[in-house]
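Hey, quick one: can you model this chain's 3D structure?
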Amino acid sequence: MSIEAADMKTLAAERPIDRAADSGWTLQWTPVVAGAFVACAVSSILITFGATVGLGVSSAAPTWRDASVALALLSGIYLILQALISFSCGGYFAGRCRVPYEAGVTEQSEQRDGLHGVASWALAVIVGAALAALVGASLTRHTTLTPPSTTEPSIISSEIDHLFRAARRPPNIDLAPLRAEAGRVLVTSSSHSGVSADDRTYLVQLVTATTGLAGADAERRVDSVISESKRAISHTRASSIILAFSVATALLLGAVAAWAGAEAGGRHRDGMPLSDWMLHSNRLVRRNRWRRSPAPMP
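Sure thing. Here's the predicted structure for all 298 residues.
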């Protein structure tokens, strides 16, 4: 065996095998994908749990509109908290699983761990948006196939039921087109001008023809349904605003949590202590342990 071959084997043996070569700000996609999957899994569990206990900003049930504003705000806060937990877990896995670079490249280790955490956050957001789009497309497929003339607004379906409620109704009458038309008229109740006088008169005529109510009773019912529809639409609009703001805030804070989690994972990987701000939450635990320590025997 030549001397050069022996020297090459010696150098290969001395070089660490668990460190990646430094190639600038490149990404290692294995920890990024693993962190994104962990974030999606934890987020799915927490969102399912929140929906089970009633922490949902919106729901398909008509009774969800009776919820208070405090419950809607609590649901938004829970959405933000679950994003912090899920994205921090995903970032921790991304930083913990990342192969460190060569031993001489350590001054930017935390920044590179944070970069992998943010990359896992971005991938998790893309995956979640794709899944939400698929679910939304499957739910609205039936609506797109139905002609618009026979489709009524779902947010005021109970109000439309109240509008056409009757003890007796002529047989073989199709209320679907009438309900859809009345729904489109009631949607205008949330505008600045409200339902016009002509539309109100037309609704009174529909109620009189389909339910048999007298003119005064039909007018009272129409006015009541218009007021209820305006309140329902306003509640739906407020819930949509809270949901959109909560989702945007959760995603922005999720990026910060993913960066911090990736830095913590990188420090655990390298055997380094956590930063002071990460250890702040453990001071009370350490203090309680010190207080519970047994006294020495004489």
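One thing worth noting: Residues 215-270 form the longest helix (56 residues).
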